[in-house]
């Protein structure tokens, strides 16, 4: 069976938007445009002697959440154009230092804000790209897991490893010998192993009615007195212990 899955940052972003969110984004864009026109009107048709055009930043920030990267650049270009147009309408080609400085401050504020918004947009798309790759990997894994013709079990041994390590810390060096004198040891250890997922082949192999019958503690499926489980657990615990020792040694040498 062949599976095809394609997810891109843009497609994930679009798919994640509900109708209400799209209306919200459209509203933000309209509000930002209105704010920009209001700033242009105040800056052009009033005699306020201050850098009113800096308020274009507020309009840009308001609309930015609803805009794509191209939209942010277009909005920033529109704000810059309105700022320059207002200056030319009021002052023409005047070389008055104060008015020129106010214009430069406003243009710089708009440009810096746009640059920061574009960087934020790039970071957002990188995050979406990472999520898309993770989704593709998870989908491929689940496809292989579910459709494999051999039985596959996904189990959590964390609790068992901690228990066996605690026995080693208490001086137990031979887990297999330790288990020989304790008839309930195997069932006790198997109860600490949690089956979290199985594939279809595992269900068929054990003639189970559904996957849910095989999930949960493993002791339900281990026959009483089965020593193979204790031997395999002992080997697994020893391997995990050796790995931890190597990791501690590596950290110590790096330090």
List keywords for this structure.
mainly alpha; 2 domains; 3-stranded antiparallel β-sheet; elongated
The number of distinct β-strands equals 3
Give the ordered list of helices and strands.
HHHHHEHHHEHEH
Number of structural units classed as domains? 2
Largest sheet: 3 strands, antiparallel
**Structural class, please?**
mainly alpha
Number of helices: 10
C-alpha termini separation: 50 Å
Question: For the largest beta sheet, what order do the strands appear in spatially?
Answer: 1-2-3
Helix content: 55-70%
**Rg, Cα atoms, Å:** 33 Å
Percent of residues in beta strands: under 5%
**Uncertain regions spanning at least 5 consecutive residues:** 1-14, 243-255
| Oligomeric state of this protein | single chain
Shape: elongated
The pLDDT mean sits at 78
What this model shows, in words?
A three-stranded antiparallel beta sheet has the order 1-2-3. It is mostly helical and 255 residues long. The protein has helices at residues 9-15, 19-45, 56-64, 69-91, 97-147, 158-169, 175-180, 185-190, 200-205, 228-254, and strands at 153-156, 194-198, 216-217. Mean pLDDT is 78; it is low at 1-14 and 243-255. The protein has two domains: 9-145, no CATH class; 149-254, no CATH class.
């Amino acid at each position: 069976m062949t599976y095809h899955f394609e997810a891109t940052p843009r497609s994930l972003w679009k798919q994640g938007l509900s109708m209400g969110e799209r209306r919200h984004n459209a509203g933000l864009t309209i509000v930002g445009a209105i704010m920009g026109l209001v700033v242009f009107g105040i800056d052009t048709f009033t005699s306020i002697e201050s850098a009113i055009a800096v308020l274009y930043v507020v309009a840009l920030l308001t609309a930015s959440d609803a805009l794509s990267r191209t939209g942010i650049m277009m909005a920033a270009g529109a704000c810059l154009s309105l700022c320059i147009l207002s200056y030319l309408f009021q002052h023409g080609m005047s070389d008055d230092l104060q008015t020129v400085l106010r214009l430069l401050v406003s243009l710089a504020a708009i440009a810096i804000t746009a640059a920061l918004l574009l960087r934020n947009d790039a970071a957002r798309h990188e995050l979406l790209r990472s999520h898309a790759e993770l989704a593709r990997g998870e989908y491929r894994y689940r496809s292989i897991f579910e459709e494999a013709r051999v039985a596959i079990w996904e189990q959590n041994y964390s609790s068992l490893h901690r228990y066996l390590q605690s026995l080693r810390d208490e001086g137990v060096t031979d887990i297999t010998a330790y288990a020989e004198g304790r008839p309930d040891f195997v069932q006790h250890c198997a109860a600490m192993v949690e089956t979290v997922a199985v594939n279809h082949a595992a269900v068929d192999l054990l003639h189970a009615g559904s996957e849910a019958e095989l999930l949960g503690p493993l002791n339900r499926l281990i026959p009483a007195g089965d020593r193979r489980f204790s031997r395999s657990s002992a080997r697994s615990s020893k391997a995990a212990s050796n790995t931890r020792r190597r990791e501690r040694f590596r950290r110590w040498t790096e330090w």
